[in-house]
Amino acid sequence: MTTAGQGEAKAASHGTTSLWDAAEARQIMETYRGLDGALMPILHALQERFGYVDDAAVPDLADLLNLSRAEVHGVITFYHDFRRTPPARHALHLCRAEACQSVGARALEAHVKRKLGVDYHHQTPDGRWSLGAIYCLGNCACGPSALIDGETVGRLTPEKLDALMREAEAGRLEAAE
Amino acid sequence: MSAVRVYVPGDSSAVAVGANRVAHALERLAREKKVEIEIVRNGSRGLYWLEPMVEVTTSEGRIAYGPVAPGDLAGLFEAGFLSGGQHALRLGRPEDIPFLKNQERLMFARCGITDPLSVEEYRAHGGFRGLAKALRMQPQEIVSEVTESGLRGRGGAGFPTGIKWKTVLETKAERKYIVCNADEGDSGTFADRMIMEGDPFLLIEGMTIAGIATGATKGFIYIRSEYPDAFRQMGRAIEIARNTGYLGPNVLGSGKAFDLETRLGAGAYICGEETSLLESLEGKRGVIRFKPPLPAIKGLFGQPTVINNLLSFASVPVIMDDGANFYKNYGTGRSRGTQPFQLAGNVKQGGLIEKAFGVTLKELIYDFGGGTLSGRPVRAVQVGGPLGAYLRADQLDIPMDYEAFAAVKAMLGHGGIVVFDDTVDMAQQARFAMEFCAVESCGKCTPCRIGSTRGVEVIDRIIADQDRAKNLRLLDDLCETMVDGSLCALGGLTPFPVQSAIRYFPEDFDKPSRKAAE
Ligand SMILES: Cc1cc2nc3c(=O)[nH]c(=O)nc-3n(C[C@H](O)[C@H](O)[C@H](O)COP(=O)(O)O)c2cc1C
Ligand code: SF4
Ligand code: FES
């Protein structure tokens, strides 16, 4: 059994999210509990469905997988991907790594911070955008790169990024299928 | 006339610069014009400055056009590109483009050429021959062949792959595992991703051979979450391999079992380190384990485990098929075979260059890469990811060889090359190295966890010209403490980019006083 359908972890930070539903969360946990090392696949599946992993999931996960709550909490907080609060409507992650730096990532970062008025790991006050940092998307020959609502975009300039963000806001960002 | 085959890469880097938009527009236009086409989403050939690179099948072979934007398509149709017509974007036959022509593609022999999910095409291009051969051999013979080839791990440390496999083969256990490290976290690298997206059966074949060679029946591929497309593609390929008898309880009717599962990382660079990766696979925090025991003896779930980089596994089918002697004829010194070098950053022609070890950094950057994208002089080059040393423009004659790099306190790592022009500020690069270590530290050792944060502060003071001499000494001490007191290479190697930046680019750490002097 492969963990099909779990490739959307980052894509899940937008659009498809809804309020936390404990019953549905438990169903998701059941689906993946049989996997070896089930905790990570379950956390990805929860985040894919709800956009974050609510603290309410911790005791259920601990019971299900025979772990302490501290262990479950430790895993959720160790990994940069897992969010414990609902996401903004749209997520922008800028690549901060070296190959992107060499083609203007720092200038792009300054532009975005000015435009959104927030620093990394924050959301705009209107809840429209969150700004995250990411370290390499494997798009290093076509940088600078970013992830917009889970889609990798490359060869960015401030103008091109602005246009892509407008597309995302209008719900018609078409980078991947 | 039957449908013309048109290739539009589904590779995520090609997609990031518009390949899906091109594919959709192409479909629409062909329908409007009532032309029958068959669009294949191939992998990338690795000529990234030309992506999206569209190829059509003609009587003279495949003809490429690129980089294609959706707006170019109307003109391309007008030029008759479906039969190879003239157009400003016409590149001719891809294999005649010098960047590709001058490579030695063993591992990347198929990537970009075949339909990535077609078993038939994989086989037609030499796929699964290595596995068929391995199934007729004794496990010891397979391991000897791999050892004999001189193959060294492509994940960074360059450990002989055959020796690792031998340990697992000789360790008795109920269960053994094969784990593929597809965490590929180094900036400037994308070869693992290209294989997963563009030639996924190659990885399946390599891992299956490892299973047959060591007596392991189960494998996991740990893929970073930044690669969702690769994750999905591997899942599909595994499903297909299972349905066609290449994976499962009876691999190709041999009576031997081997199966694979994929797992997704969660945005932690440290999980590329093998013991941290195993912890993560077990569903835990990715904290480094003490070694010994080696994973080969006590690895995943306490069982003997082969853990290799994706490119190490992907090298094995060719070694089995063409033999250790064929493979080891490529290369230089103790670096045998070919390596997919990844040329990235500020370079005119970035992409994937598979070459025998021994090619120089200069040849890769200038002959293949064509110099910087900005047209300004090259000033610094970082090889081997965020823990690799920075080199100066006058050091580029160095051959790509593990020992040659070690001799100048640098490393080849996973083969990533990041080029910077003369606008780079090396004090900022040194600061970033420390900051990255602080962000990604697993937290187990104080020198790494706390030292890196101190490092950022000290570099900030140097940049601000506060007690420069004293702070430079302090930074040096801090680096020594990190080298000596870190359990793994994150804390242990972060000083290399920092100290190389200071050693080779001292003027960047002395800006205020230079300004004053001007
Ligand atoms: C901080 C750190 C990050 C690493 N990241 C990776 C990685 O992303 N991919 C990889 O294959 N090896 C990585 N390694 C090396 C692995 O620990 C290990 O050496 C490798 O998986 C062994 O496979 P090989 O012998 O085929 O190279 C990393 C090591 C360290 C210390
Ligand atoms: S050096 Fe850093 S990352 Fe490595 S084990 Fe120590 S704290 Fe963890
Ligand atoms: S460094 Fe930005 S995509 Fe690799």
UniProtKB/TrEMBL annotation, chain A:
Its cofactor is [2Fe-2S] cluster. The keyword Translocase does not apply. Keywords: 2Fe-2S, Iron, Iron-sulfur, Metal-binding. It holds the Pfam family 2Fe-2S_thioredx. CDD domains: TRX_Fd_NuoE_FDH_gamma. It comes from the Bacteria. Belongs to the complex I 24 kDa subunit family. PANTHER family: BIFURCATING [FEFE] HYDROGENASE GAMMA SUBUNIT (PTHR43342:SF1), NADH-QUINONE OXIDOREDUCTASE, E SUBUNIT (PTHR43342). This is Formate dehydrogenase subunit gamma. The lineage of its organism: Bacteria, Pseudomonadati, Pseudomonadota, Alphaproteobacteria, Rhodospirillales.
Automatic annotation (TrEMBL), chain B:
Pfam families: Complex1_51K, NADH_4Fe-4S. Coiled coil: none annotated. Signal peptide: none annotated. PROSITE patterns: COMPLEX1_51K_1, COMPLEX1_51K_2. Its cofactor is FMN. Residues 427-472 form the NADH-ubiquinone oxidoreductase 51kDa subunit iron-sulphur binding domain. SMART domains: NADH_4Fe-4S. The keyword Iron applies. PANTHER family: NADH-QUINONE OXIDOREDUCTASE SUBUNIT F. Belongs to the complex I 51 kDa subunit family. This is NADH-quinone oxidoreductase subunit NuoF.
